[in-house]
Amino acid sequence: MAPAPASLVFSKIALLFxxxxxxYTLFCALLGLYVSVRFILRFTxxxxxxxxxxxxxxxxxxxxxGAWALITGATDGIGREFALQLAKxxxxxxxxxxxxxxLALVSSEIETKYGVQVKSQAIDFARPTEEDxxxxxxxxxxxPVSVLVNNVGKSHALPTxxxxxxxxxxxxxxxxxxxxxxxxxxxxxxGMIQRKKGLILSLGSFASLIPTPLLTPxxxxxxxxxxxxxxxxxxLAPHGIKVHLLNTYYVTTPMSKIRHPSPLIPTPTSYVQxxxxxxxxxxxxxxxGRGGEGTPFWTHSVLDFLISNLGGDWFVGYVKSTNEEIxxxxxxxxEREAAKEKEGKNE
Length: 347
Ligand SMILES: NC(=O)c1ccc[n+]([C@@H]2O[C@H](COP(=O)([O-])OP(=O)(O)OC[C@H]3O[C@@H](n4cnc5c(N)ncnc54)[C@H](OP(=O)(O)O)[C@@H]3O)[C@@H](O)[C@H]2O)c1
Fold this sequence. Notes:
alpha/beta; Rossmann fold; 7-stranded parallel beta sheet; binds NADP nicotinamide-adenine-dinucleotide phosphate; Sc_DH/Rdtase_CS; fatty acid metabolism; ketoreductase activity; NAD(P)-bd_dom_sf
């Protein structure tokens, strides 16, 4: 006689178990149903957010009606692109960044292309004075700023074990990524509360979604932004102010040192287009429990959904070995350049 198929044996055991322990079986079935329905709802919302639904319109924040957008770190990379695209959408633009000459260039580019009003202020957020922040407060006092993009950020010159990082680099990262974000936000928020309208976007990073060895202070500074956003978004929601963290994987900018875009690594232009068309949506961050956070670019969103659902632990080891490899290559390049320079001097 042929043996019964495994599925038949399994069904028989399950039936016997169900008859013997009906309450326990019902509990397991309901739990299974709850987990499945929860996942299906989460997956559906992820698909809708990432591929179907449009985000909140910028018109809600006064685009084309005299409202201002303030962008920090706006002379290069993602910040410059936010300034250009928000000007194109009809906002007057206030840019705050480090280099006065670059600020002048970006300001005149925006004025020429989009005919909106542009103001700028140079602040080195790594070495700000109290006067810098008071003069920024005076500059924005008469302006109806309804959009703030907390974009300015600093990472490490190269991946480095924590014990070997120059303490000055750590201080700069804390001042730029954390202090500047809180100071600028605190200056802008009272006006938004008065006008009962505002959008605050902060540039988050996968370096906080996956704790990132060899970039430890940067990774931790971005984790700060995550908690800051979640708490502040709850505080400011009753005032009509949306606070949102943009969870971001790589983008081709001077900071990432990646020049060529790929499906996973967009240019600043396509990244910012996504960010501005998906305002308020969660994407891959949906159901992750990370409040006030969204992942606007579609491939980043898919990656976030996978990491959030598969668990991020094994990614830490992968990121660590990648950073060790990047460090080795960068150090070899430095050695080659130093040797070349020495040769040049000897000739
Ligand atoms: N690029 C990525 O792959 C990536 C991934 C995840 C998250 N992010 C986040 O996205 C944000 C923008 O990054 P990005 O790649 O666009 O950077 P970026 O290309 O290096 O541009 C940085 C901008 O910030 C300004 N800046 C730098 N240090 C400053 C300081 N001390 N004071 C004032 N302004 C300063 C720069 O001004 P100068 O022109 O004067 O230098 C520049 O305008 C950052 O918060 C970053 O952490 C980026």
